Amino acid sequence: MSADLEAALDARGERVRVEPDADWLAANADDVRIIVTGGQTGAPRELVEALPNLGLIAINGVGFDKVDIAHAAARGVTVTNTPGVLTDDVADLAIGLVIGLLRDFPRADAHVRSGAWTNGDLPLARKVTGRRFGIVGLGRIGSAIADRLEAFGPVAYSGRTRKPVDLPFHLDAASLAAASDVLIVAAAASAETRHLIDARVLEALGPGGVLVNVARGSVVDEDALVAAIAERRIAGAALDVFADEPNVPPVLVDSDRTMLTPHIASATVETRAAMAALVLDNIDAFLAGRPLPTPIPPP
Q: What does UniProt give as GO cellular component (predicted)?
């Protein structure tokens, strides 16, 4: 949480930043009406069950896979998130990762900083324009990525359903991967999409293909990805998210065919301010008994 968001929460009530334990809950559980959390932290079922007067879980982020929405709804708890306001930043980062990986920005930057340039040039990188791009998940963020990518080359997509767009649709991620040079993961994390990008998909992507993930670490089978990188069964990967953040497998860290960022897709001053404002809008509506701007409907 930003300092500004925490200050705004303080102005609305008593804020406690805490990892609740049994003693704290015994003394305070009845007083808690609102949980404010991040998408990567969520709210465990046992915590929700321990707060009898909880009414709102306000997620400062778009992902809600760390909250059991159906369980919360059954207990009369509404869950909100911050969709829309971070779409542009996530899509922008996806394009940056595509270009940075194919043009080998990390190694180029290190080549200049280390002084190695005085000893010779880098090996040639790979062209971006003209590549075939596949997007797994054509929601808000996937659609924004597609809009940006159409300037570079043909774009196709896969997802649960066909969208009303003029782009080739593939029934599954493996079929899309086989038709792509660059596979970009933008699908929401859920039980259904866990390890959606598995060994079969990576095999279909092949030794000339690269993977870009700006969704959630759980959508990619990280063990399969590590093996594919180590055995050179794909050309490379650009990743903003990981299975066990902030822990990243050494193979991915050590490889010269990966580009890694620390889950920064929405990490701009402007977007974090917009996210905080939407969190507060939901809290204010809840406290005033008004309809909430961005409730997540139960399944």
A: cytosol
